[in-house]
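Working notes for the structural subgroup meeting. M.R. asked for a predicted model of this chain before we commit to crystallization trials. I am recording the input and output together here so anyone reviewing the notebook later can reproduce the run.

Input as submitted:
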Amino acid sequence: MPIENYQSAVETIDAFLKLVVGKGGLRLKYRITAGVGAADPHKFESREIYVEIAGPDVDLVLEHNAELLRSLEHIAAKTLRLEPFEHDLVSFDARGYKALRAQELKLAADTAAEQVRRTSEPYQFAPMNSRERRMLHLALKNYEDLRSESSGEGMRRSVVVYPKNWQPRAPSTSGTGRARTFGRS
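Returned structure, recorded in token form:
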């Protein structure tokens, strides 16, 4: 469901950020854009509110793979009482980090697609957050001979790329009905 009242949402995010920046003693500025102007030009996110963060302390926001940036974004979405599937309606960025990450994920998707085509075996990405998994799925959807699925639970959830009609191989037996073992006993 889209955000119904942009003005109220912007005021809520502004109050949240003023509190965090003020109490945290952070030297940060931010600009909040809502509505059509907030749309993602790359179409990786269906954002309706976009927050661009800058300032002398922006490096702190981007440390540890932008953990603080993602946390601020997550708390802002929760503050707006968005459902988890609506969290990509609000997007925070700093120094183009997310655009660069989107390019990295597109390149990773292309590389995985090439490997799956070459080997005819599935490729599993490292676990990542739901937004990045979505970006991978979007990057892979144009490969008609491949399919992608999310696998795992919680923090271990990742994307797996398969040949379109891939089926797991049935375990082979040696005819004795016993499993074969190798190495010393």
